[in-house]
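Re-run with default settings, no changes from the original entry. Doing this only to confirm the output is reproducible before filing.
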Amino acid sequence: MAMTATNAATDATTDADELLALRLRALAHPARLAILRALAQTERCQCGQIVRGLTLAQSTVSQHLKVLKEAGLITGTIEGPRSCYCLDRQTVAALADELLPLLDLLAAAPAQGSGADNPDPRADALV
């Protein structure tokens, strides 16, 4: 069965939403935000400096780095006992490009005739 253009667009939107959700989940922890801020302060990759800058155990920081790397927000290399991480500025810029229009949409008042007069907003909710 051939995929229609509508199905392909829906699948692409779903995939984009899944990726956006993955990245937002990665941002949703104070330690990971601190790691990203630290990486943003330099153009060079950081190794042990990340752990020294936080009040967390090495294993905890490693887990947070793994989440950030899986979300594509950082890149990392492991060479023997040393792990070095860099902020993926291109991915972060793409995330901002996706997130700002979404936030604008969410903050905007609904258009007239779009159910804004309905006293029960759940009536028009997506299921």
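Helices lie at 5-27, 30-40, 49-52, 58-70, 89-107. Strands lie at 74-79, 82-87.
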